[in-house]
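The following block was generated as part of the benchmark described in Methods. Ligand: pyrrole-2-carboxylate.
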Amino acid sequence: MHVIDSHTGGEPTRVILDGAPDLGSGPLAERARRLATEHEGFYRSIMLEPRGQPAMVGALLVEPVDPSCVTGVIYFDVDAVLGMCGHGTIGLTVTLAHLGRIGAGRHRIETPAGVVTVELHDANTVTVTNIESRRVLSDVTLDVPGYGAVTGDVAYGGNWFFIVDPSPIPVETGNIGQLTDMTVAIRKASIAQGIGGEQGEPIDHVIFQGASPDPGVHSRNFVLCPDDNYDRSPCGTGSSARLACLAADGALAPGEEVIQHSVIGSAYRLSYQPGVNGGVIPSITGQAHIMAEATLVFDANDPFKEGIEL
Ligand code: PYC
């Protein structure tokens, strides 16, 4: 299996070029469902240690339904198949350019959440124009065991987010353990208390939105992903959900640009335009770097060929 690894603001993406199971040719959301339900062992073996690493997202290239797209892609982490992934799309675009499959300029990419547009500015810098993102609930209070009442918004940016602003814990690298514990508890509470998307979709990510000490930076976030790791990047789908909340609150005008930092200080430039369904069309600009081109070997005699399952 040939893979190319990149990172976007420190968050790894592994593009899988071959060796995947046949997922058929229907809509990408249907193929993603098939990957999640019938081939869990496949994607877990690529994401789990020793071949994978914590926080890694896989990007499986598939034939798009829409022929105007340069590729289709299905994203996953070790614990979930994702609707969309912003940092992964920046990493995928830089990887496609590295492979000579695309040049500078605008391209379309099909994901299970819909078609997104990418603009490759140089070898590393990409703007993603995401699917329409929206806030579905504001000021929802959860009763979080061990923490008490926590109030936040539910918003969609290609994945489902519970967003708490301001963060109850300072968003600093020294607090990553505490931030992780509390956001895991919030996600569990949201599921137990039936708080999620309009069709009952479960919350898969939790964001704490904190102040940034850096001049000119709008805020700094901590984003919990489905695999209980934090996003090293500012999270593209999470930033999209956050933009939908800022727009709904009248706190950011269309076209106005802000800089969003992740907990480790990596940066996205964010803005939005109004969407046709009352949400926002987010623009996310970030940088990715290629780290490795590799052939993964799954030796039949390797006791950990399926990954280390704890
Ligand atoms: O950038 O959208 C994102 C993302 C989702 C999970 C990890 N990164």
